[in-house]
Amino acid sequence: MLEMTQEVYMNATPGDRLVIKSHHVGEHDKVAEILEVHGVHGKPPYLIRWSDDEHEGLIFPGSDASVERRRTRPTAPRNKA
Prior knowledge:
Number of strands: 5
Number of helices: 0
Helix content: under 10%
Order of helices and strands: EEEEE
Structural class: mainly beta
């Protein structure tokens, strides 16, 4: 019997956050801001800045990573004139 699988690709834009889950009890997740996207259509590698020490580097995230979208500012209501 053949199983259908779907590959899910990471997709990001500058300003999004990259979160890497901790592998050990008591350790915090690692969080970084995505500064640049070097792959096609939002795919890795990403130039990131770690939130804990502000170190910058290029990363190909693994399966323990996820992207949190940048929150957009709410738009002001338009005046109907």
